[in-house]
Write a structure and sequence with these properties.
This protein is of the alpha+beta class and 544 residues long. It contains 19 helices and 16 strands. Helix 2 packs parallel to helix 4, helix 6 packs parallel to helix 9 and helix 18 packs parallel to helix 19. The strands form 3 sheets. An 8-stranded mixed beta sheet has the order 2-3-1-4-6-5-7-8, with helices on both faces. A 6-stranded mixed beta sheet has the order 13-12-9-16-14-15, with helices on both faces. The longest helix has 24 residues. It is elongated and about 85 Å long.
Length: 544
């Protein structure tokens, strides 16, 4: 005679099992969820973002459990659930992943307190209710028919359930499934596309994993409504796509809660799809804007932003409508304006702060988030070559074909992007981009911070240093005079195009003076000028 499986206790092992099962479920459903992603932006990456967020949460939890190796200590439920939520926070990707991170934080806010002596079933119901409430608060302008609606329905069903924690989880799962089926009637974009909400679909998978972890019973597989329906390809697939912001900006932020309140107001005035999650001094910020530099500048005013990621939606939307090539470009840049330039050229950008280069894991994540089988990586810094190589190796282990072009400056990266051909073969594209970068000499102006010996002699603090191909070639006292001296040396061996990238310290008249200088002495040489934005060098020079 068959027996019903016995429910498992709500403890640290249950959280570990939940995490593993949720990651596996999202991995299986990832492509189907991507295929029905039409809101808030039809960029076909909701499933991938949820998976990457869950993967980060699972990794943090596994690291915690791995610390207990001698058998003298045991991981508690509060420790496990806090690690689970923290991992999701620091690895949250996209709108849906950021909301998932806040849902898990809500769960941790309840289960993270010492639960001894409390009814596990009621505790879990309260945790799911807190999760839905905190997720709603994290979204600047909540919309019904989305992941938030599904989370609320799950919480209500959990509060109404009787029995064990497994029964509560089962009720939440059933409530979420029922709510998900109703989303096309609540959100016009979903109804027109004939799909359910993609984020809600992912949440159902996560709640199904919770029920399985506590009950020992596997949820029956069910088709995803609209899984065979591609992202809309009509000229006007949904109103939300037209007139929307051009960039997605994501970053982690260390800041006080009072500063984050002001940041929310500022970002809300700049764009839409604003989600700010976290607490206790660490936040994950997600917003869609037309001015990514302003979004980053707002973060600098609030605290310390890092792991800054800027993605241009034009390329993502083309991919989502079936125009996706198998290839993407990931570029590391130092400067908000440079991030915008690379984004407009179709690259996913990793914005680095001065003195804070990206780590291997950050570049590896950026490669994976490009959602391509082939990726060209532009480190744009000589010191990042080893980091870029290691990140590429990690991505190759996941089956991504990666080529690192040894760009040592952003101007070499811009030259490589100018000849990038996503429709050509991978090898031909890499060769052409490498050749363009190699044919570009690069110069830079920097301000000396202290007295030191250089290849051009002894400099004093405050001197303007003119570097050519990484070596100090000129020591001057003014930006304009030093820049002209650097240009004279660089153009002495010929050139057809000069690229000038001005930093925030450069005076407004510098661009005009340098353009006139080039035109006067080299009539056949063209000049283009860009603004590098915050964190870029005072001046970058490229000569092709």
């Amino acid at each position: 005679m068959a027996h019903e499986p016995q429910p498992y206790p709500l403890n640290a092992e249950a959280v570990r099992t939940w995490s593993s099962l949720a990651l596996a479920a999202l991995g299986r459903a990832r492509e189907d969820i991507d295929a029905i992603n039409v809101y808030p932006v039809a960029d076909a990456d909701t499933g991938t973002n949820l998976y990457l967020t869950a993967e980060s949460a699972d990794r943090e939890l596994a690291d915690l459990l791995a610390e207990v190796t001698d058998g003298t200590a045991e991981t508690s439920l509060p420790q496990a659930v806090r690690a689970f939520a923290h991992g999701a926070l620091i690895g949250a990707r996209g709108n849906s992943g950021t909301i998932l991170a806040q849902l898990l934080r809500g769960v941790a806010d309840v289960l993270g307190d010492e639960p001894a002596g409390r009814d596990p079933a009621r505790l879990l119901a309260q945790a799911l209710t807190r999760a839905a409430e905190e997720a709603y608060r994290a979204v600047a302008h909540p919309v019904e028919g989305t992941m938030l609606t599904v989370a609320t329905a799950a919480a209500r069903a959990a509060e109404a359930a009787a029995g064990t924690a497994a029964d509560v989880a089962g009720a939440a799962y059933d409530g979420a499934r029922a709510a998900l089926a109703e989303t096309p009637g609540q959100l016009a974009a979903l109804g027109r596309a004939g799909v359910v909400d993609a984020g809600g679909c992912g949440l159902v998978a996560v709640l199904g994993a919770l029920w399985q972890a506590l009950s020992g019973r596997e949820p029956a597989p069910e088709p995803i409504r609209g899984r065979a329906v591609p992202v809309p390809t009509s000229p006007e697939p949904c109103a939300e796509e037209h007139g929307g912001p051009a960039y997605e900006v994501i970053y982690l932020l260390e800041a006080a809660e009072t500063e984050v309140d002001r940041l929310r107001a500022r970002l809300d005035s700049l764009g839409d799809s604003l989600v700010v999650v976290g607490g206790d001094g660490l936040w994950n910020v997600h917003v869609h804007v037309d001015d990514p530099g302003a979004a980053v500048e707002a973060a600098v005013a609030a605290g310390r932003p890092y792991r800054i990621r800027i993605t241009h939606f034009g390329d993502e939307r083309r991919r989502a409508r079936g125009e996706r090539s198998q290839r993407a470009v990931v570029a590391v840049v130092q400067g908000e304006g440079l991030a915008g330039l690379c984004g407009e050229a179709g690259a996913t950008t990793v914005l680095a702060r001065p003195g804070e280069p990206p780590a291997v894991a950050e570049l590896a994540d950026a490669i994976r988030e490009a959602h391509a089988r082939e990726v060209v990586l532009l480190p744009n810094c000589a010191e990042l070559r080893a980091v870029a190589a290691s990140a590429a190796q990690r991505a190759r282990a996941d089956g991504v074909r990666v080529a690192v072009i040894p760009t040592r400056s952003e101007v070499q990266g811009l030259a490589a992007l100018a000849v990038h051909d996503p429709d050509g073969t991978f090898d031909e594209d890499v060769v052409a981009m490498t050749a363009a970068a190699g044919a570009t000499r690069y110069g830079e102006l920097a301000i000396a911070e202290r007295q030191s010996f250089t290849s051009a002699g002894i400099c004093q603090a405050g001197d303007v240093l003119g570097l050519i191909d990484g070596d100090v070639a000129v020591i001057g006292t003014g930006l304009a005079q030093t820049a002209e001296a650097v240009l004279a040396r660089m153009l002495g061996s010929g050139g057809e195009l000069v690229t000038l990238v001005l930093g925030p310290e450069a005076p407004e008249e510098l661009a005009g003076r340098l353009e006139a200088y080039v035109q006067h002495g080299h009539l056949a040489v063209d000049t283009v000028t860009y603004q590098g934005g915050r964190w870029s060098a005072p001046l970058l020079i490229g000569v092709e």
